[in-house]
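**Sequence, structure tokens**
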Amino acid sequence: MRYVLLLCLTCTLASAQNPIIDSLRNQLTKLPVDSNRVKMMHELATNLWWNGYDSLARQTLYQAMAVAKKAKYPAGEIRARLALARIEADYLSDTKSAHAQLDTAQNEAIAIKDLSLQGQVFLRRAQLYENIMSKLPEARTLLEKALQKFQQAPDRKWEAQAYNEMAIMKMGEGNYVAAINLWLNARRIQESIQDVKGLRASLPNLGMAYLKLNRYDEAMACFTQAKKLADQMNDEMVKMFLVGRQAEILEKKGQYTQALALYQAQIKAYSNPYQPGSLARAYGALGRIYIQLKQYDKALVNSRLSDETYRKTVEKSQDVIEHNAQANFGKIYLALKQYDKAVTSAQEGLNWTKDVKEMRPERTEYIRQLADAYDHLGQPTKALYYYKWYKAEADTMLNEEALQKATVASMTYDFEKKQQVTRLKQVEQEARIQSLENDKLEQLRNFLIALLVVGAGILGYVFWSNRRLKSKNVELSQKNAEIEAALYRGQTIERKRVASELHDSVAAKVSALKWRFEAFDTARFDDDQMKEHGRLLEHMGEVYDDIRTISHNLMPEILEKQGLQAALIKLTDTLNVQNRIKFMLEVDQSGEDVRGKTAYELYAITLELVNNILKHAKARQADIALLRQNGFLTLTVQDNGQGIPSGRPQNGIGLQNIQSRLERLGGTCQISNREQGGTQVNVRIPFAA
């Protein structure tokens, strides 16, 4: 019906949002079957519809209805039915099913006694009727009922939407003052409740009404604010609608080439995704521009595209009032001097608009075309008849428009004056609030100053206490270090004593015992006795070697005198002489200055790990590495044996001993099987340990 119609109808779903469709789909996968899931599906359907994916939007709404039933959420099911009817209002291709959805929604809304939803049913049904000429009176009645329900609910957001729809009807009648007044009502409500989504519909349409009366300043103010909201919400539909309004301003100013480029941009945007209603309007506008440029072939092509694009979506039984291109045909045929075609086209348009007050501007244009065509066809009687009719309609419109311009100027002034009064009251209220806040801030400041003084005293006491504690901690650390050094010296002395006892006493006695066994006269021994005698001598030799090893390992002299590095070198040399396993050592000057407690503990850990390899690994080669890096000493012992069998506990006595030593050094140990076979043990201690 009008340029303004599409945006209003598209944006009336005030509760909808416009986030990224993929984001909504991802969020849906995380929601259970409940009311939140239904609401999220409504949002997704709305965004799909706004972006031209109507079939996906319908599919999502049907799914939302099923989920709402399962979740026992009747309001969600009703809203899905309302949205389905709303989508159909753009096309009028299957109004029967849309009315069936609304009938069910109405019964369900009455059942749950929701006045707002009942009002929404009336509003959606009115939207179905707004483009059908025979249903316009019923549409007006339905909007009045919807407004009454919203006011009873009360639901301010939907009340504003009702004013939106009523304004559309008034725009169709050419009553721009009434339309502006209704949109101002909607705007006041939406600003008071901060309904940004509703404002993005009201502001462009309010600007459109101002534009009809050539009130360019007011129109541009509305369009500028609407553009900010569209950018804020990333709403491409509103942005493209505003492109069309910019083009219309250029068209009114006679700047047809610039307007042509903007209308072409609209056609490209509405073609993908396909939005037939908006596309039809853009084709019609483009045809209108080509008429002004006297390019009638292009004007005719685009006007036909406009007519075909819209009418192929509408039920043939519906007498719709969309006239995107019908007036273009008469203008083109008159310019081409095809007066018979001009009469046919204009008469068809006049038949559609006769007695429909919402189509007065279009009807007046068709009457003018008929008067002009009959004049050129040499039929002065008919030409005079239509000319008088046109003069009466045009004078009425001219007088009404002049009156409306004056009324709008006054009404706009009153509105701005009220806005200024409101802003002054807000400023006064903000000043009072600021004064109260200043008093509170002063009280708070005094309290904070007192609190700061108390806090400073507490902080000073804490600081003094910390200094005392630090001093005591230093003394304790020194004493602990002295005790630890004394303990280590005592342990060293004791280890030397035990090693000496083992070597000088026990080992000597075992050696003497072995000599006496060797002195036995074995001439009279049989074979079993000889074997037993040999085994005893062998065991005594092993015991003697073990005692010497233990006495040596308790405190190797080289460890005490030359440090850990020299002790590890001697250990590997000894191991390579006595065993079939080849031991490799990598020290890289990392342990030459490691002495005392750290050297002894690491040496003992190495012995424990080497002993495990000899007993359990079944390896052919083992590696010992001592490296220093980033303030840490790292001891790595690994072999190429069978590794640690799965399920075998790693809490034996040997490992417990290693862990105890590491706790004293503040270190860590990691044991793992190597990918190429065997076991790897990483021991890591702080360098200062």
